[in-house]
Amino acid sequence: MVCNSQIHSEVSDTSTDEEDRNSKSHIHTMTISDLRNHPFLQRPFSVIGHRGAAGHAPENSLEAFEIAFASGVDAIEFDVKFVHDELIVFHDDTVERMTDSTGSITSFSQTEFAGLRLRNDEPIPTLAQVWDIVPPSVGINIELKGPHTGRPAAEFIRTHAHRYLVSSFLVDELEQFKSHALNVPTALLTRVHDMNVLATGASLGVENIHVMDAVADPGYLLAMFNAGFTVYVFTVNDIARAVQLRELGVAAIFTDIPNVLNPSSIDRA
Q: How far apart are the first and last CA of the chain?
């Protein structure tokens, strides 16, 4: 296991002994509750079903979400796009990877779109259809995945009560969302190791940064913590890595396999 006091020594081998002592002293003053202070969470360390349970069923399908609920996840995450004046739950810009058809998701008429089927023969769900099956105990992380999603998501949330967090790689959509939903927590997503992300997150006023696991090294995580952000990591499908991230101060991980990696299995590890 990696404890918080080990973080600094993993960041740099060139610091002086005095710098090491000062940094470690600072880290010891940062308690777990300081790093995991987000109202979206209900546990000290949470597991979020990535696109429901993308490793067990077609991603973003109602089947995948039901599997995630049965696995005991703390929240689910899914992508939304704005198609035919409605928010639909789908990740890609084209449909061939996940459906029985081909083409851009915006190229279908409303009737044609309604006829598309996922690999498990379900239709592509709407945000309203997913919201309707989510238990009150499970949080909803909506990722704004395309243009013109920020404002409709805010409008939906105003009329559909739940525990929400809204995230995106798209700065413009986060700005639009935040201008219409001031009290909903938000997150900036990143796949890169770039300290400019901290300034962008601060400018947006997001509470969280969600970072890809491949770049979530201890130094980058510590910089996010010190900048005041709560940090979630995507996508983690290894229990040992989940435990390590928990010990480093990460508040939550996204997983494709909640049947295997869930709060109970992490507690037993």
A: 11
